[in-house]
Design a protein that fits this description.
484 residues; alpha+beta; BirA Bifunctional Protein, domain 2; Rossmann fold; 2 domains; eight-stranded mixed β-sheet; four-stranded mixed β-sheet; 17 strands; RNA-binding
Length: 484
Amino acid sequence: MGTKTKSSKKLQAPKGTRDHYPEDLLRQRYIQHAWRDASLRCGFDEIEGPTFETTDLYSIKSGEGILSELFQAYSGKSPKDVEQVQETGTAPFALRPEFTPTLARMYAARAKQLPKPCKWFTAGPYFRAERPQRGRLREFLQWNIDVIGLPGESAEIKAQMDAEVIECSVRLFESLGVQADSLKLRINDRDAMARFFYSLDVTENQLEQAFSILDRQAKLPADALATMAEDAGLPQAYVQFLTGSVTSGSFDLDAPALDALCTQCIRLNLSPWITKDHSIARGLAYYTGTVFEAIADGERAISGGGRYDNLIELFGGPPTPACGFGLGDVVLGNLLDDKGLMPEGVELMEAVARPQASIRPVAFVVPNGDPDNEPLVHTLVANLRRGIESEEWLARDDRKPWQPDRYAVAPVHARVSYKSTRNLGKLRADAEKQHARYFVEIHGDDKVEITNMDTRESLTSTSGSFHIDPANPGYAGRAIGERA
RNA sequence: GUGGCCGUAGUUCAGUCGGUAGAACACCUGGUUGUGAUCCAGGACGUCGCGGGUUCAAGUCCCGUCGGUCACCCCA
């Protein structure tokens, strides 16, 4: 009996880890299912890297913070390794604390042969030797989506890529039943903020500090912020901005990139989810432009992301702009629990068993060459990816996101072409290369042609033209959904 | 890394001023009613996280330690 107590003490799970009994594992699968589903529908391809990397990989860009929280590893077979650990306290390998360095390494290795943009997602375990607390464990799952590389140079294209990342995260929250009134994506532009700070006589050396203090703006009282800023030698104008106009919301930043992003978000029907917030800075320095943060119930930060235009270069790749977003399973699980959005028992089993979104693109949407139709592409694609909820389900008071009658038109995997050409033949070739099932040409609001790429049959020839508007009986998404 | 709170039966928890433990649910057995559902009776069940200290006496007070939790730090 005594031995039993002793051995069970030794065999307990390490601090900050979780044992997943059947019901627990299903809950985790539910979240992973939602992650994969949203990513696939939005046209992201899944990748995975090793769960441990060489320690060097993490010392390239990181500060003390990351390095001190690494779980380090060595084989123990090489006397050199053992020696190194004893002498330097640093092992040759480390369990990965984040995905971005691996992503940068993987991208850099094949940068020349990869398409632009390259849309990748991954969801796997990460390890940080932190002290556990709410929403933060030492082993957790994290979902990452990244759009790497740009299909063109213009600011609009950059905004489009940013919007793709935001769109995908919104599709996730939507699919899990999180409402736009309880979760907001706060967006900001670090470039524009930097320009503004310089106009307040903040020096280049002070910039990082200025962002770092700005980032804590919501957490600390005004006088503490002022003291902190003054101690850092930041100019009075900055202090006034920090404690005054940024909180009142009256501050109007000159940020064309942010405006372009907002325009794109309107096209994608994302406006209820996003809000400009010039107090968002997102911690460390590698974010270069757009930054965003998902905030639940007006205070809790759930996740974040942004644009990191020089990171790939830092990891030995060609200069490549990129934008990404990450979300952990622990915080997300907490949020779903709090909102009553985590199914249990039979409902959980059935939700997890539901088929995953198609890996093969179901719809490939292109404009017919008329520039006026190009915005329609984004609107239709957003609706295809989101699906159309059924009226019966919407009318029910006890509706839950996992119920089988949720959708009148189920969400599907929809893609667009990133080629700048307006040549329909080239666009069709792009669709073929990506193995899309349906080729969708937009000739106007009420003139959408759909072709089955496998059979070469035109649905339009038998059913007439389809419509962009989901409320219209001839909605293109319904035609595709019925055949998908 | 710093600080607050917590750790008692399989589970959720109670346990007063220090006097060597209790409830509910769950479990097992028997009985009743034509179901394995209800109800009744009975039963088993704990090194009070672990180690040390104070005391005649510690679940209770003190120190340490491990684990949990919340906040700070940090947020990749």
